[in-house]
Design goal:
Length: 329
C-alpha cells in the first residue's frame, strides 16, 4: 500500500510540475531585432531543447493551437512562438510604406518581376535575430505554410544552427505546381473592410474555404476565432506586404537541393491552397527528407486533425532532439 501511495503521489507531482513548466499563460515578451520589435512567447524550461514555431501568412502566435504547444512542451521542448513582422503585436521601429498589391499581383500573373518591401529571406533573418536575442545557438524549427517557406531560408542561412526542420502544408515555390482555385484567391485578396463586423465575416469565409471538406465548420466558432484574432491585432496592410514577399519569391528548388538538415515534410491530401503535390515536390528536393501525408487535412489546424498532426510530428522531433540525458522533471 505504501508503495502504491508513493507512485500515486509521484504521478500527481509529475503532472503538476508539467503543468507549471508548460505554462501557456506566460506573458508575451518583446525582442528588438533590427528594424523590429518582435512579440514572442516562450513556453518551457530554458535548458530544454528549443523549438521555434514559424507561422504562415497573416498568422499570429495565437494561431498555433494551445494543445499542440502544450504537447510539444510536455515532450521536453522549450517552445517559442512569435508574431512575424507585419502581424500581431510585432512592430516596426519606423512606419512602413504600403504596397500596391493589385499592381504587384498583375505583374506576377503576366510574368514580370514583383517588387516587395522585404523578402522571405529577411523574415528568416528575423527568426535568427530572435534566437540570438534569446541566447539560443542551436534549435529545431517547425514552419507552417509561408512559415515553412521562411523556415527553408532559415535552414539555408544557418544550417549549423538548425537541428531539424519540420515543414507543414508548405511548398518549394517551383513553377508548374497546382494553383489554388480562383475563388480561394479572391477570398485571400479581400483585405479592405469598412468595419469590424465585415472584417470578421470575411475572415470566417476565408477560414471556411481553407478547411477540410471532411469537416463541417461551426460558423459561430469561425466568427469567434476571427474575433479573437481581430481584437488582438488587425493589420491588413501588413498582410499585403507579406503577400508581396511571397509573390516576389523565386523557386527555392536550388536552395532545397543543397539543404542537408534533417527534414520532415507533412502535407494534407485535401489542401485547397497548396495542393498535395506541393508537399510531394518539396520533399523530393530535400535529400534524406521524410514525407508524411495526412488524409483529409486541408490548410488549417482544425480540431479533427490535431491528433494526426501530432502523431506525424512528435516522433520525428523526439528522435532528433538529441538529448544526452533524461529530461529532468
Amino acid at each position: 500500500m505504501r508503495a502504491f501511495l508513493f507512485m500515486v503521489a509521484l504521478l500527481f507531482s509529475v503532472s503538476s510540475f508539467s503543468a507549471v513548466r508548460c505554462d501557456l499563460t506566460s506573458a508575451t515578451q518583446f525582442a528588438d531585432v533590427g528594424e523590429l520589435s518582435l512579440a514572442y512567447q516562450s513556453v518551457g524550461r530554458a535548458r530544454d531543447p528549443a523549438l521555434l514555431l514559424v507561422m504562415g501568412l497573416g498568422g499570429q502566435l495565437i494561431h498555433w493551437p494551445d494543445e499542440v504547444v502544450q504537447s510539444l512542451c510536455e515532450q521536453g521542448f522549450r517552445v517559442i512562438r512569435f508574431d512575424n513582422r507585419d502581424v500581431g503585436l510585432s512592430r516596426w521601429h519606423q512606419p512602413m510604406a504600403p504596397v500596391n498589391l493589385t499592381i504587384q499581383a498583375l505583374r506576377y500573373r503576366i510574368g514580370i518581376s514583383v517588387s516587395a518591401p522585404y523578402s522571405l529571406t529577411d523574415m528568416a533573418r528575423d527568426s535568427l535575430g530572435l534566437m540570438d536575442a534569446l541566447g539560443i545557438e542551436r534549435f529545431h524549427v517547425l514552419g507552417a505554410s509561408m512559415g515553412g517557406m521562411i523556415a527553408q531560408h532559415l535552414a539555408d542561412l544557418a544550417p549549423q544552427r538548425v537541428q531539424s526542420l519540420t515543414l507543414i502544408m508548405s511548398s518549394s515555390g517551383a513553377a508548374g505546381l497546382p494553383a489554388p482555385s480562383p475563388k480561394l484567391l479572391a477570398l485571400l485578396g479581400r483585405r479592405e473592410a469598412p468595419n469590424r463586423a465585415v472584417a470578421l465575416e470575411q475572415q470566417a469565409d476565408l477560414l471556411a474555404a481553407l478547411g477540410s471538406p471532411e469537416v463541417k465548420d461551426d460558423r459561430q466558432q469561425l466568427l469567434h476565432e476571427a474575433q479573437v484574432s481581430y481584437d488582438r491585432a488587425f493589420n491588413p496592410q501588413g498582410v499585403e506586404r507579406q503577400i508581396a514577399a511571397i509573390l516576389a519569391e523565386p523557386s527555392r528548388v536550388e536552395l532545397l537541393n543543397r539543404l542537408r538538415v534533417p527534414t520532415l515534410v507533412v502535407h494534407g491530401t485535401a489542401d485547397p491552397l497548396l495542393p498535395v503535390m506541393h508537399g510531394v515536390h518539396l520533399a523530393a528536393h530535400i535529400r534524406g527528407s521524410q514525407l508524411k501525408l495526412i488524409p483529409g487535412l486541408a490548410h488549417r489546424f482544425q480540431a479533427a486533425f490535431k491528433k494526426p498532426l501530432l502523431a506525424a510530428v512528435l516522433p520525428y522531433l523526439i528522435a532528433h532532439r538529441r538529448d544526452t540525458h533524461i529530461a529532468q522533471l
